[in-house]
Amino acid sequence: MEYVGQMKIVAGMGSMEDYEILVKAGADEVFCGYVPLWWNEKYGNLMPLNRREVFFYHVQAGTLEDMKILQKRSKQYKVPVSIAMNALYYTKEQIADALQIIEELIEIGFVHFILADINLILQVEQKKLPCHIHISGELGEWNTLTIRFLRQEMQAERIIFHRKNTIEDMAACIEIAKQCEFAHTYEAFFMNELCHYTGGFCNSLHCDEMVHLCRLPYQLTPQVKEYETQEQEFSEEVIGETGCGLCAMWKLRAAGTTHLKLVGRGKSAEDMQRDILSVKRARDILQQSATEKEYLQSMKQELFAKDCSKQCYFL
């Protein structure tokens, strides 16, 4: 099925209370994590269900009752919710438990799941569970060879490209995916959490006890001469302080990207609201612009009038 329409905004949600705020700001889709208490009691946060191994701040739901409430809100606002279960791998025992969780969520109405472990994806297909698979960027869709390989083993509704894909690589992968009817929507990281590590190779923990590996302070200095380092200061209203793809929106659309991911699990609802409104406005400017140059000029004049984070995803 060929995708038709403008690029959609996909917003990450950390707390159930944030759903309405994100939707009213303009999110076309929402994604979140769900880790029931029994999973944490059984496995702890060293063997996580998804890539947010956190207990003490809001990055995901923790009870099935919360998920029931979220599903009711999704029906009310007609904005779908995808569930992230994107750990890089699971043990045999964990696979069985993860399938149980997926089945429970399907029973209450969720049908979109973001998965990274190939074995789990194959198990979902073999059991013929009535759901749609979004292949997580943590799986690592590196190039067209990866897409061809995945097509032989599984079927997916969406490919979520990892952070290190170039726009040219995405365009090539999208073309191949269309040819072999592997997926019909394609999502790119677009705002926040620009990590210098590749998710598919990252085995660090995003937990309460330790600083995230990508947040550890460090500096790079040449061997011959040392330079003083300065922390970059931003105005309070800077957009995309930890990652931004606004300047690449024109090229992403030309490449065939259909969805723009705004990472948001763990961010405040107010920050996410601001990000969604900014991306929504940039999308409007894109629709009104006849050329990429016109888009960049108009977008920067309006959205980067005060400051630019210089944390570019694609440039």
Q: Could you walk me through the main structural features you see in this protein, from its secondary elements to its overall organization?
A:
The chain has 315 residues and is an alpha/beta fold. The chain has one domain (8-208, 237-303): TIM Barrel, CATH 3.20.20.380. It is 37% helix and 13% strand. The protein contains 10 helices and 9 strands. It has helices at 19-25, 37-43, 64-77, 92-107, 118-126, 144-153, 167-179, 249-255, 269-288, 292-303, and strands at residues 8-12, 29-34, 60-61, 81-85, 112-115, 132-135, 158-161, 185-191, 259-262. Strands 1-2-4-5-6-7-8-9 form an 8-stranded parallel beta barrel, surrounded by 4 helices. Helix 6 packs parallel to helix 7 (167-179), helix 7 runs parallel beside helix 8 and helix 9 (269-288) packs antiparallel against helix 10 (292-303). The chain starts with 7 loop residues before the first strand and ends in a 12-residue tail after the last helix. Mean pLDDT is 87; it is low at 225-235.
State the main characteristics.
315 residues, TIM Barrel, 8-stranded parallel barrel, 9 strands, 37% helix
